[in-house]
Design brief:
heterodimer; A: alpha+beta; ten-stranded mixed β-sheet; 26 helices; 25 strands; B: Rossmann fold; six-stranded mixed β-sheet; four-stranded antiparallel β-sheet; 10 strands; about 25% strand; globular
Chain lengths: ~850, ~260
Amino acid sequence: MWRLTLRTTLARRARLALTLLAVVLGVTFATGSLILTDTSGRLLDDQFRTATAGVDLTVRDAVAFDSAMGVEVTRDPLPANLPERIAAVPGVAAVRPQVRGQGLLEVDGTAVVPSGPSVLASWVPPPLGAFTVRSGRPPAADDEVVIDEDTARAHRIGLGDTVTVRATDTGRLRVVGLAGFGARGGLPNSTIALVTLPSAQRLLRLGSTVSEVAVVAAPGVAPDELRDRISVALGAGYEVTPSRDIAAAGAAAARDQLSWLQLVLLALAAAALLVGAFLIANTFSIVITQRTRELALLRAAGATGGQVLRSVLGEALLVGLAASTVGLGLGVAAATGIRNLAGAFGVPLPEGGLVLTARTVLVAFAVGVVVTVGSAVGPARRAVAVAPVAALRDAAAARTGRLRVIAGALAAAAGLAATTAVLAAGAPVPLLGVAALGAVGGLALLGPAITPILVRLVGRPLAAAGVTGRLANESAARTPRRTAATALALALGLALISFMAVLGTSVKSSVRQSYAEVITADHVVESARNEMLGGLSPMVYDRVSRLPEVAVASRLRYGHWRDGEATQALTAVDPATLPRVASLHFTAGNLAALDGGGIVLAEHVARDRGLAVGDELPMTFSRAGTRSLPVVGLLRDGDARALSTDYLISLDTFARLYSEEMDASVLIRTAEGTGRAAAERAIKAALAETPTAQLRDQAAAVAGRTQMIDQVLGLVTVLLMLAVLIALLGITNTLALSITERTAEIGLLRAVGMTRRQLRWMIRGEAVLVAALASVLGILLGVGFAAATVRALGRDAPTVLAVPAGRLLLVLAVALAAGLLAGLLPARRAARLDVLAAIGTP
Amino acid sequence: MTMSTAPAPATTVAVQARDVVRTYGRGDAAVRALDGVTVSVPAGRFTAIMGPSGSGKSTLMHALAGLDTVDAGQILLGGTDLGRLTERQRTLLRRDRIGFVFQAFNLVPTLTARENIVLPLTLAGRRPDAEHLAHLLATLGLTDRSRHRPGELSGGQQQRVAVARALVTRPEIVFADEPTGNLDSQAAETLLGFLRQAVDELGQTIVMVTHDPHAAAYADRVVFLADGRIDGELDAPTVPAILSHMARLTAPAATGGN
């Protein structure tokens, strides 16, 4: 039986090629995602391990948490005498103070702005320092700098050139060396400037303090033991951490920033596989229908039901194994492709050799084989049900079972109920995901029953176009199970695309709306890089606020805090000036009350936490530890969103709780009688020495806030196209198979005078019809769930549904055009059928 | 019958084959299905083509109907040389000037009986002549069946629908390929009666390929084929005459072969 299975599979290789392709694409996507995330993780691990390779322990200022939302917290500097005190501890072999901060490089008057950090650090020779000089020499004098090779190459900086480093202070430094990091020429998406310790202290205005102290244990002294000794010697307030822990924490924080991407990729891989599964099931059921005679013959010749079942499943297993192998190979290529794609959408991922783990291989095969075999189970069981006498009869068209209709209706009803629960009863938003699953499951089950009705409805324009269109409609309606599965696969991809488009547009337009309502400032200055904490030098505020053209300048700062396990963000504002550049609406308390060290909450936060003015909110800060802040006011949700977070404190409170010296936005009101152009000129001139600071109008400020949405939207849409591609292959596949099935009919049509052209249009018409059906279902489903999600989100901040009609029409047009494309090949094949041979086919 | 009887003069030729050769396969495996066939089908008559299996009768019909091309010789259909037509022209010729009745799978399963009947007209973008269509439906006993799909019709009814479709375009010639092959004897009699009636009352030219002497006896003339060659003709055939001719045909063919 096994040999028969193998031979059948091989004999039908053309028929199975497309099925194979569907599995291959799904597996490719899944493995590509895994390889990419593994690779990013490994590269980040390597990077952080290299950074601390030569060091046993690091002494830093103690904090409550290291990093939040992937951003390392700023620690207070260490006193100048600390290195000496550490060196005095027995068992310490070497001590090296280090200074680290941000310093923007400027070459020939042009700022070098990487998408990652601009590192300014004191030079520490290896092995304690992670950087090695590749050419030239280390910095010796205070006007000398070593920069990383990658940056030097990219910006044509040579030894002996002069560059400007802008930190808290600015210095013009001579390049005396080029450094590498481990085996690389620098750090990904960063610039590195290494200077002498005094020079770094001066540029960062640290006086004689240092950022951290690297410690090497004497031979024979265990680092853990040394750590305890140093901790005891220094007392509280300092943190002595083994380097490997720092490396692990750093890598974890960096990986944290990419975790959403991994989630998105895996979700998309799942979607691709789901679409693939539909197609595989479809192909197998068609192939089995066509093989009914053959199977019946086998049964008649004495094959047991079990043997037939095993034969069909064996075929699926072979396909699954083959597809997984190919998919795994392609996944490696896909990983690079996705990395480049992510980079193109502004989500840089670390570059380096790809990592293929045993887990990825296992997942690839498990996914490919399980999906294929699982999808073949239903058709295989139907194959067993074939009675031996069927060899002499044509198989009757399968009717949709009543059980299936009931199950489908139940699933759809459950989806509807879950949606209602979220919208009306305030159930948690993730329940919408369950609702979506219910709806998709329900559609999958109901598909065969409702497809004929839908086909006739959607296909009306086609039917009006003539008999070829009518025939296309009829043949789609005739095999509802097959049409439904093919259309649903495509609908799923289109639903996700429309969902993302509607949700993204709605959130963006809502952000824009609140911002326009609340922020009354004439101008905004923000960092061009849209760093998580703003990234604007305080110098900007100092300069801009002094301009005569500026009546009021008010700044915002962001900070992270811990709320139990969750990380939250807050906004620090100046209660005195903010009302003049923003129109805030309090439902309780007022802004001025912030001066007492309290906090203002967005209304929905107060509601969810059950807090009112006068209550206290416990918050954990990295530097200050856990504090309870009194609630002094409640702010309208939309206003809070315009200020980016749901928690407001005063800048004074911020200064007591945080050591970060970085503004997020400077909101500006121009002086009476100053023209817009004159004000812009003056502000731009004041920003000359802070190249990353950008003067923005309202649209640009909103764009900066919604950039992430655009990035994710763009990336996800492009990746979803892959799922759509798989689904389109499904249309090609289904049509090709159904043409084989309809050979005699096609022969007849040709014999009685259907021209090749008419025949081609008939097949293409059917393809377009399936695409149209899928588009209608998919777009309705996507927009429907996006509308529900938007309404649910509206509970936390006013969110209005914005339907990007143009974009959805584009999706529709592309889907229809793609359907036409998917029909080309089958249409050609059908037109090429030999009339005589076709008539002769039973 | 309101139709005027218009027996065409026997001298008019509807379709003719001249020295037609059709070879399948190449080299040693080559089979000459038609080996220099010359035959004329008179207009307004019912002609049957008979011969044992593999004699080339279906190939000849396909060639005469423009379903297949020939390797040598000429097919002239009412003055049109089929060999000079493109594939598309041959398709249009089939649609507008020829009617077909096949042994099986004559109908598109998704279309109703009426839609199947008018299919060649619909494909041509023409409207059926309502009177003509009603007449055909009535004659063939299909009036109350016109809205049914093929699956809801008996085998005999399906073949009658096919006959109606073949006649609806008022073609120059109708080709029937074993039209009664899948029918019981009573249904077969009825169908053959209709074909006969179409010839007698409408002056329709019909060519029928069959291996059934009873069916062939309905024809005006039987052309016999053996090993790809014409091997005798029989006018006003009777079943015994056909049987005896067939017996003569098969005997040497079984032992012969060059």
